[in-house]
Amino acid sequence: MTTEINEAVREATETLRPTGTARKRSIAAFFSLLQYDLSTLWSSWVVRFWFLLTIIGAVSAVLLARNYSDQTSFFISWALVLYSGLGSFVALIVSASAVSAERSFLGVAIISRGIAPTPYLLAKLCSRAITILGMFLFVMVPTMFIVQTQGLTNDMTTSGMLLALAYWSLMLTVLVFLGITVSVMFTNTLLGVTVLGVFWYLGLMLLAAAYAGDLTVDGVLGGLPLVLQGQSRMVEISTILIIGGIPLLVLPFIATRIVNSRDM
Amino acid sequence: MDIVEINELTKIYDNRLVALNTVSLKLPQGAIMGLIGPNGAGKSTALMLILGLQKPTAGSVSVFGQPMALSSGDLRSRIGFLPQSGAFPPDMTSITYLDQIGKLFGIPHELRKKRLSSLLHATELLQASSPRIDHLSSGQRTRLGIAAALINDPDLLILDEPTVGLDPEGRAFTISLISELRRNGKTVILSTHILPDADQVCDYVAVLNQGKLIFSGPVEEMKRIAYLNTVDLTVAGEGVDAAIEAIELQEPDTHFERLGAETVRVAFQQHGDFSVALANVLMEFSRCGVTLRAVRQVGELEDAFLKRLAEDRLRGFSRAIGTESGLGHLLHNDTTQPQEKSS
């Protein structure tokens, strides 16, 4: 038996070494981690349940929109607000648990396999953002365009809808990046989710209060219907994109610094 | 060339626990080094630092001649690691797990598949390649861990307690694998507290106790130094005790220890040549009608290890008294008092 083992070990260890530069290996590791994390996410019940729920919600919205007499911009605005409220919760759970949930075995099972923390973290950022944005766009894009064509009183423009989708995508991406940064900072997942939840929902409420015209059903939507109607000004658009873009640049840098400074 | 070079490495966790205390050692290429020590000695911490998974509080670690850090993914890609707790994803099979590990190392698809099947064969896991990992036995998981550690054809292999929890056959199999890796020129660090395993495969040994390196060097040297001027005599006959009593009267510096009915350990105090003292012992045994069956140099690694630990405990105490508080004279004048305090 020993001879067989010896031969097999020799054969296994004498095969060619992995080729390529460190950079190539790092990129390969990034894609491998990305692929693995995406498959893990799509097999999680949180993601599956939420995705199913949003599809049911979208079908219901489309059916409802056919009999909705008011302007479609208000209808979709409410759908977006609802999504930001409930969808944010899913996004913050998915992102704020990304690293902290793996902390107990991250070093020995992942980083020890020739990985530097940076590609690991970037893979996490990408996979979580792709999942959250994928679910949002998969549901909202067809819903908005169907409501635009099927709604009784349509006042939405295509450019307005695309801009609203861009705003919401930006918001969800910022939340995911924020969640992953929190996940790196807090070793306790529950604590991280709670802190981010309080911070995020408080921020959303303050934002809504600041932009709300009045505290009526339509008033709390602020200027969102106008965005869908294509009435945004370039100054507003650029301001929102810049304010939203800054965290996307800064947060990965902060998260990478933190993860590189800590023991695995 | 030294594959691993550790220079005055110190690790203190949260200003509370000194896990490693100014440890320095070198590991030459192609050697197998046993990292041994009792639980909490700092073995796993040392491995984490060598892998760059933790940052040293002071000192440095070089692997393959380059400084190791958390960001040194390229250096880690030349290291195979078997962690103590496997940390296997339970829902994967052996094949999907090894494939995933191969992907992390950036091994091309074709080479990965080829190596994967060879390793499954080498570790006798071909029959266990389809069940989920959580359905494998602990021995099979350990072998899977070793296969995963070898998938990148590492230059340095770090095995943390690879034989813990294995049955005798599993242990023998693992030891056989490690021996074969040595023949293939791999450099191995084997952390273990199962000393007969280390004795079987290691060329070098580093002994840690409470974070302090108390010995590093060839295994034979450790045994030799620990049991310098000591032999085990296998004897038979009624007059053993009488012979011992007689010799102890004549040679008060010669110490006897009965290890069993037929084994006597004799420690001589002479430095260097103890042939005359040994001859006296043998003559006295012969005179008392004791039959000598074998003379063996003391040499179990476990014995040497325990002796080292005992010596270190005493030495550690005298260091603390002598150098730090300036009360060294107490130890010389009255050795019982400080020992009672320490206990």
Keywords:
heterodimer; A: 264 residues; mainly alpha; 0% strand; elongated; B: 343 residues; alpha/beta; Rossmann fold; Alpha-Beta Plaits; 2 domains; four-stranded antiparallel sheet; 13 helices; disordered C terminus
Describe the SSE topology.
The complex is a heterodimer of chains A (264) and B (343).
Chain A: H1 2-14, H2 22-42, H3 45-65, H4 72-96, H5 103-111, H6 117-150, H7 158-185, H8 189-211, H9 224-228, H10 234-261
Helix pairs in contact in A: 2-6, 3-4, 3-6, 4-6, 4-7, 4-8, 6-7, 6-10, 7-8, 7-10
Chain B: E1 2-13, E2 17-28, E3 32-36, H1 43-50, E4 58-63, E5 66-67, H2 73-76, E6 79-82, H3 94-104, H4 109-122, H5 138-150, E7 156-160, H6 168-183, E8 187-192, H7 195-201, E9 204-209, E10 212-218, H8 219-226, E11 230-236, H9 240-250, E12 255-258, E13 263-267, H10 275-287, E14 291-297, H11 301-324, H12 328-333, H13 336-342
Parallel strand pairs in B: 3-8, 3-9, 6-7, 7-8
Antiparallel strand pairs in B: 1-2, 1-4, 4-5, 9-10, 11-13, 11-14, 12-13
